[in-house]
């Protein structure tokens, strides 16, 4: 939890219906020629499920290459968190989108972007 000073990438998302707001910050390092998420933090304003989802996606992404992190799905987050009410699954989807936005922001600044992230 928290903010990274001078992050390599930042992802923002929000859900206007429920009021959840998520921001993910990442630092990327080169490891064996690949970009790896070496530090990741978040700021989330929302319910407990929103905070838990953002925390879990950060845990899942830490130490992963950007390509591996891009493959993390909202269902991976929900599965790791365990039983979640159906009306709260959107929290894990928002967390996935915030991570994708942070990766895209990094790629836009440091690499050639491959595609614009899609909101689920």
Strand order of the largest sheet: 1-2-3
Q: Tell me the CATH architecture.
A: Alpha-Beta Complex
How many individual helices?
4
Unreliable runs, pLDDT <50, ≥5 residues? Answer: none
Order of helices and strands: EEEHHHH
List the helices and strands and how they pair.
Blueprint: E1 9-14, E2 21-31, E3 34-45, H1 48-61, H2 66-70, H3 74-81, H4 89-110
Antiparallel strand pairs: 1-2, 2-3
Characterise the protein shown here.
This protein has 120 residues and is an alpha+beta fold. The protein has a single domain, classed as Sufe protein. Chain: A. Helix content is 41%, strand content 24%. It has helices at 48-61, 66-70, 74-81, 89-110, and strands spanning 9-14, 21-31, 34-45. The chain has a 3-stranded antiparallel beta sheet. A hairpin with a 2-residue loop joins strand 2 and strand 3. It is globular, with a radius of gyration of 13 Å.
Compact summary:
With 120 residues, the protein is of the alpha+beta class. 41% of the residues lie in helices and 24% in strands.
List key phrases describing it:
120 residues; alpha+beta; 3-stranded antiparallel sheet; 4 helices; 41% helix; 24% strand
């Amino acid at each position: 939890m928290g903010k990274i000073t001078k992050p390599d990438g930042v992802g923002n998302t929000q859900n206007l219906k429920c009021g959840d707001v998520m921001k993910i910050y990442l630092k990327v390092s080169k490891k064996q020629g690949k970009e790896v998420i070496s530090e990741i933090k978040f700021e989330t304003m929302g319910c407990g499920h929103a905070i838990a989802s953002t925390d879990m996606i950060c845990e899942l992404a830490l130490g992963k290459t950007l390509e591996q992190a891009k493959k993390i799905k909202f269902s991976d987050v929900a599965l790791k968190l365990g039983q979640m009410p159906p009306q709260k699954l959107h929290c894990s989807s928002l967390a996935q989108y915030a991570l994708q936005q942070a990766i895209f922001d990094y790629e836009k600044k440091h690499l050639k972007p491959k595609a614009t992230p899609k909101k689920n």
